[in-house]
Amino acid sequence: MTAQIKIRKAKGKWSVRSGGAVLGETTNALELSEGDHEPVIYFPREDIAMAFLDRSDKVTHCEHKGDAIYFSIVNKSSVTENAVWSYENPSPEAARIKDYLAFATSDSVKVERI
């Protein structure tokens, strides 16, 4: 089965927050849709405060996108383990998300269109 990956520019301005801190805002987000999964917003690295992110040892593989590396979010009030992922060398069909970051939303991590 082939997952259909669709990547398009996300309309509007997007923000990601964790523990009360704004990690980034962008008008250059991408929205990735894959099969029946909920769409995921990807932020350009240059629009994220990378000082809040610590690279972890976790790596996962997606047959359609390639290997994902992970980061934990570290701020004054908490550490959210492996809450951010990135495809540094994505497959050709996902090439547009190279150098972008996606965030696992939770009670402590919010991705919003503003």
UniProtKB/TrEMBL annotation:
Top-rank taxon of the source lineage equals Bacteria
Give the signal peptide, or none: none
The residues covered by the DUF427 domain are: 15-105
Which InterPro entries does its entry note?
DUF427, DUF427_sf
Protein name (database record): DUF427 domain-containing protein
Pfam assignment, any one: NTP_transf_9
